[in-house]
Amino acid sequence: MGASRPGIVQRLLILILGMGMQVQASTTVTAMVGDNVTLTCDSKKDGNPYMVVWKVGVTENQKDQLISLILVKNEITDSKNSRYNGRLILNTDCSLNILNVGIQDAKMFFCSTVVETDIHESSVFINVYNQPSNPEIIQLAPFLVAGKLQKVGQCVVKDSYPAAKISWQYNFQNLDINKPGVVMDNDSTKNNKGFFDIRSTLEYMPKRGEGKINFTCQATYFEGLVRSMTNVSSPVAMFVHYNTSKISLQVTPAPDVLEGSNVTLSCSGDGYPSPEKFTFTKNGDEKAVGLAHYELINVTQEDTGEYACSPLENPDLKDPVNITVHYLALMMTPSENISKMVGENITLECFVKSSGTTEVTLMKKK
């Protein structure tokens, strides 16, 4: 090997103490909890080593030896570290397999090799992550009220490592948490497995007319230093309630009808949910209560007048409509057959009763 036995022993002592080594740049390996990982010993590239030792960083200045291998003898020495008992495999190419990786393995590992009279060291950092549960929205509000800041619900993500980032979406578009009327509060705790459980509470102030809206929440977690993944919750639909500010009274077939027609009055409001029960009046007199529709059957001239409807809870909110029943009545005098001598005079009169202006023309039947 090009080195005396005392020289080797001396360098092994230096290797164990972790002093006087040539350190190379570190690399990073990313693994999910439960994976098996292989750590490459980059310091082996500097030649054929006589011995390789793997250590783990405990503090900034302390390293614990895990396992070593004297290659010429194929002699492995395991430090029996309780955290790694049965989980380490040191290969002849100096790489180290760590089985069933956990978050406790998110550390810097050091590979030291003895090559002739030199000792080289390289390092590998294990970046560990755990895929969180799918986000779920719980504690939903039954509905939202326009103009009122209120809790929409709570997004729950469990078993994340490191802690996932939670965001909310409104109608499947990212919700700006800096927008007025939007408040989001996130809280994360470590569970008994060492993973993070995250709860994100959203408060939202809807506007009048938004109607039905959808909310989703999204968890973003990192599988590596730069690669991110996302899980999205199932959407929840919510309705925005707002008071009625305008009443509409519709008349079918029309406000102007002929005597003998049937007329239907239908009342509605612009709120959500719309009022279902109304009071109908004619010329200020109450005609029907607790209905959304009011029918006039076989109308006569007596049904002409101003009709209005208003919700039961707000009688001052009205929409008046004038309904006119058109009629025409003719009466001739004399009304019976009469006989006259040639040359005698006769007076005929036609009386008209009508809802509008009329022109009367007397005609003689041929």
Number of E-type strands: 30
Ranges with pLDDT <50 over ≥5 residues? Answer: 1-20
Number of helical elements: 1
Rounded to the nearest angstrom, the radius of gyration is: 46 Å
How confident is the prediction overall: mean pLDDT?
Answer: 87
Largest β sheet strand count, sense and barrel closure: 7 strands, mixed
Tell me the overall shape: rod-shaped
Q: How helical, in percent, are the residues?
A: under 10%
The N- and C-terminal alpha carbons lie at a distance of: 146 Å
**How would you classify the helix and strand content by structural class?**
mainly beta
Percentage of residues in strands: over 45%
Describe the protein's architecture and organization.
It is a single chain. The protein is mostly beta strands. The model is unreliable at 1-20 (pLDDT under 50). It has one helix and 30 strands. The longest helix is centred in the N-terminal third of the chain and has 13 residues, at 5-17. Strands 1, 2, 4, 5, 6, 9 and 10 form a seven-stranded mixed beta sheet that branches. Strands 12, 14, 15, 18, 19 and 20 form a six-stranded mixed beta sheet that branches. It has a five-stranded mixed beta sheet with strand order 22-28-27-24-25, with no helix packed on it. It has one helix at 5-17, and strands at 22-23, 27-32, 37-39, 51-57, 63-70, 75-78, 88-90, 96-98, 108-115, 118-129, 136-138, 144-145, 150-160, 165-170, 173-174, 182-190, 196-204, 212-222, 228-232, 236-241, 247-252, 256-258, 263-269, 278-282, 285-291, 293-296, 305-311, 321-326, 328-333, 349-354. A hairpin with a 5-residue loop joins β18 and β19 (228-232). 4% of the residues lie in helices and 48% in strands.
